[in-house]
Write a structure and sequence with these properties.
single chain; alpha+beta; Nucleoside Triphosphate Pyrophosphohydrolase; 8-stranded mixed sheet; 3-stranded antiparallel sheet; 7 helices
């Protein structure tokens, strides 16, 4: 059983699909309502870092926790949405189906890749943010957010129909509009990151801006502003909105 007071390492991947003359699309998933954490919420693909991710990370240089989180983000995106990032050769839809089946059957990511003749490179992922909530919860996640561009030839996303019920491409602004109208459930960290992502005209723009703001852990706090409790985040990390009335904030 997870200790609610010990954050669980996790990772999430924001995939950009650039469009000529329009804001880029982002890959989003809708979580099943029965999920204990963020049930029914629209989020980016992602999940906890597994021991197998650490084992695979040992094949690479770099900071071990960061590399393991990148690998977890890639693995979870394959499991949840069927979109491979950083794999060589680029898997077709049938190969992704076989990889997903192996992962769902309990194979480690490294073993599944080796068995199907793929290698992985975590370098295409760009560190973007790190969030660790401070409110009491059944589970608290220490989540690293990464950016990546959709590679050429990648298969179309397909929902896993277990943890998630829907997978789709949409601009950040559209997801925010749907949340504002009540058509989508978007939790506080996702909303703040979507507001930041909505400012970017392309993956290159997002990549450059991410490099301008070194990643520092965001742990939201509560303070009164104008006599109203607000949930707040730092104002020097590139987020255009840094506070929301506590009564309006959706936290999982």
């Amino acid at each position: 059983m997870d200790d609610a007071h010990t954050p669980i390492p996790a990772a999430t991947l924001v995939i950009f699909r650039d469009r000529d003359g329009a804001a880029p699309d982002l890959l989003m998933v809708e979580r099943a309502k029965a999920m204990a954490f963020a049930g029914g919420a629209t989020v980016f693909p992602g999940g906890r870092v597994d021991p197998g991710d650490h084992a695979l990370a040992a094949r690479f240089g770099g900071e071990p926790e960061d590399i393991a989180a990148r690998i977890a983000a890639i693995r979870e995106t394959i499991e949840e949405a069927g979109v491979p990032i950083g794999l060589t050769p680029m898997p077709d839809a049938d190969a992704v189906t076989r990889l997903r089946a192996a992962l769902h059957a309990g194979a480690t990511f490294g073993a599944a890749l080796d068995a199907h003749g793929f290698t992985i490179d975590p370098a295409p992922l760009v560190p973007f943010a790190r969030w660790v909530p401070t409110h009491p919860a059944r589970r608290v996640f220490d989540t690293r957010f990464y950016l990546a561009a959709l590679p050429g030839g990648a298969p179309e996303p397909t929902v896993d129909a277990t943890e998630n019920t829907h997978v789709f491409w949409a601009g950040a602004g559209r997801v925010l509009d749907d949340a504002a109208s009540g058509r989508r459930h978007v939790i506080f960290p996702t909303r703040r990151n979507l507001e930041r992502l909505a400012r970017y005209a392309s993956f290159a723009h997002a990549h450059a801006d991410a490099l301008a703001y070194p990643v520092r852990t965001v742990s939201p706090w509560t303070e009164e502003r104008g006599g109203v409790p607000h949930l707040c985040i730092p104002d020097d990390l590139g987020y255009p909105v840094t506070a929301e009335p506590l009564a309006d904030a959706k936290r999982g």
